[in-house]
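Reader question, answered in our methods column.
A reader sent in the components of a multi-part assembly and asked whether the whole thing could be modeled at once rather than chain by chain. We filled in our standard form and ran it. Here is what they sent:
COMPLEX SIZE: three components
ENTRIES:
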Amino acid sequence: MATSVVDDHDSGALGLPHPVQPPRRRPRASLKLRNALVGWTFVLPNFAGFAVLTLIPVFLLFYYSMTSWNIFGNADWVGLENYSRLIGDKSFHVALGNTFYYAAFHIPLTIAASLGLALLLNQKLRGAAFFRTVAFFPYITSIVAIAVVWNMLFSPEYGPINQFIGTFVGGELPGWTVSKDWAMPAVIIVGTWRYMGYYMLLFLAGLQTVPAELHEAARIDGAGVWQRFWNVTLPCLRPTMFFVTVMVTIESFKVFDLILVMTEGGPGQSTLVLSQYIWQKGFEQFELGYASSVAVVLFLICIAVTVVQFLYNKRRDA
Amino acid sequence: MNRKIMTSVGTAAVAALALTGCGGGDSSSGSSDAEQADGGVSISLAGWDFASTPEFQTLADAYHEQNPDVTVELKEYPAGNDYDTALTADLAAGTAPDVFIVKNLKNYVTFEEGGTLLDISDVAGELDPATGGLSSMAVDGKTYAVPYRQDSWLLYYNKALFDEAGVDYPDGSWTWDDYADAAATLTDGIDKKDVYGAYLHGWQSTVQGFALAQSGASLDGGDFSYLAPYYERQLAMQDDGSQPSYATVTTNELAYQSQFGTQKAAMVTMGSWYIGTLVAEQASGDADTFEWGLAPAPQADESTTGMDNTPVTFGDPTTMGINAGIDESKVAAAKDFLKFAAGPDGAAALAEIGITPALIDDTVADTVFGLDGVPQDDLSRFAYTTHETLPENPVGPNTAAIQTILGDLHSAVMSESDPVDDAIADAQERVANEVG
Amino acid sequence: MTTRPTALRNTGRILLYVAMTAAAAGILLPFAWMVISSLKTNNQVFTAPIEWIPDPFRWRNYLDIWIKGDMFTWLRNTMTVSVAVTFLQVTTGSFAAYGFAKTRFPGRDALFLLYIGTIAVPWASYMIPQFQMISSWGLANTLYSIMLLQAFGAFGVFLMKQYYESIPDSLCEAARIDGLSEYGIWWRIMLPLSVPALTSLTIITFVTTWNDYLGPLIYLRDRELWTIQLGLQRFVGDYNAEHALIMAGSVLSVLPIALVFLLGQRYFVQGIATTGVKG
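And here is the structure of the entire assembly that came back:
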């Protein structure tokens, strides 16, 4: 298998000289072309499927965001009308605000919790394998069961959480998922709990790239645990950190199913988020054109944040 | 137009797929060929969850028996709101069945405006005008779907618990105040922990459906003050502990079937579909065995109470329409099937499996009350057969959007996050701002 | 080795284990509830307050789920789809990732941002155009549709690319001098070194596909094609839901994933750092 892959594509298939030859003898332009071709052959198998199945529908989404499409009928061109409607749409503003609220807490909490777990469970600890599996369990447990159990735990009258808090504090206890003020914190807690094992997995993979001898050298130089983490682990972890940060950010802005099963956006609109608003507009009220414009806004927010992270990461790399 | 875009993208890409050998799966979706080998016609019908919803098979079989040359083929969709999601996708892609159920009345106008429904005013014209919900299906004088089933909301009560608390059974004269009083007395009178006089399920319809129907207000009038007395009363009942609080109902995901069925509540208002469920659960042992009865839903005031009046309640008809993309050769058969399903023969077939058809006549009532386990008293029969049932989701272009806003109002008020008046003002402002 | 007294160290260890065990118990609580509910009768599942011990234990649910539901078919379909998607995602994803991480071509970064950008678009907002397209190929209502939906996502490319970037370029340079082609470097050097990332990607893709609900809901109609999530949802009717059976099915559905995770487990902690490659 291995050799055939190499042979097929190596010099023969592309009709190019073997790379062993010093590249400087050939003109730079053809070298560039060759590099580009090699690069593209790597990307192409995935890109072909990705372009047809994802890119085309996504591009159409941008088109639909400027139409009055209701899924069945004609998509009549309305220009930027949907976007100007967004400016005056208070529910959209609420959803936008709630989404930022969720993201602002969920992103740092999840990164901290998952990195902490990964560092802890990356050690040669008896039973680490078991605890790693446990930490991943929230992600594989049925989301319905998660919603049910957490809702019961949060139940203001019968829930163990309030009974526990009640033994320490008097006065009025939080209403959690049935209170406008506490529903979002409740959802953030459950969101962090659910995803920490998932991102722990990604951090664990990243931690394997940290060379042990670097740690050893730092230890010999007298660096403490904290210094080693800060000066050895974190820099080596930067690509993984970038990946996790971008993914957590995007997933936080897109949060949907967890909130749907836990609070359905309520009470009132206190946990209504953008993805749910898109669903409401698109599939409950059949304004898919308008829903598309909300999706585009969500996309632009994520892209803006990602580009900032991307540039920051590049600068640190340089 | 949209479909054309995607289809042309599709044809371009399908060539590539065929080359790589991925195009192997044959699609069994979409309408099958009209002409069968024996020259009969086959129409496809979208329904949901056949294992626990036998009504589609029942109608298909009953129709085929009368018309042996027409076969109704069922195509299964998931239950709940997923039915709409999956059917919507099929309608958008042009792969939906010939006949489909318009399950949620609030989507009817969208389906019609989207051109997915065939004009079947001729079928509607031949149906009995007494068919529940039929008249409200007309849009600009044309009808695009006909009701075959209509559930109405009733009061279910547990006779044993009433006896235990020494409270008189409902006699058909109850207003909501009588109901609230009875709930309080029952809660005090039943000497068991965690047993309540009443149970109010978490849905917005449990409050808003009655309020809309009994106040005579209009949903898209922009004024929701008609909701206030209904919410005040339910909040008072929740505060004095005569029913579980909304917080408990939602966080513990309480089910009305287990609350009433395992005698945790002496009364519940629920749609007539629960008759069949309760009978089945008592037979299977999932519910306790106890005597129960039906009564008309409590009324706003005395003008509609008593057995010489017609009580007002709510309930949406479940309707059936024809896919506008149906093959020309099958239209006649499809229309005939609709006429059957919404007519007396369909009603009789549905009643036999304990389902409330849109057309309730004496035959239907006899059939339902002939089922084992259904209460036999006069009031139960009166409650089942006599009512003015107004839709929860009146047909209109803004119904879906308004119901979303009112759903938010419901959770805000019942969780006691917002005072009733503030929530109503807020909802009115949102309707003015966002709808229309 | 250490100057600290071992007694103190041991106390610390014990405290750590106590804390971790407590945390584990807390984390597993919802799963425990799933198991408990799967042994109840239907009307006992949701109560206030929660009943933690089923009375009576109803083991029948685990038999009924096979009789009333078509668990065998559901499991087979879900397994087919998950394995196919995971295979495609891992192979094409890691292959493309090499292109993004270790080769240079014009527009590389822009293309990569485009990949990430699509992650930011909620699937629901473009699922209808996508469904129309796949329907027009005649692939709706086939398992192929689900495979296509999930197999070429941007997630795998992104994950693998970031991992490859943490592998020193000097390694690739050395290999080039040794006469390996780029494809050879990917196959002989990158893949073996990226086992932890490949394992994570495999598990995450597998779990995501296994638990996907909306995709199968839109695409699959025929009973013979249902996946486990779609099948279990069949126990939720309009007016009724068989919660106990759903939970029994959910418990059964988690087991294969837990198995995959346990098997994949040891590969997480086996990377560059332990295979002895020096950068």
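What stands out: Chain C touches chain A through 103 residues (CB under 8 Å). Chain C is about 70% helix and 0% strand.
Send us your own complexes using the same form.
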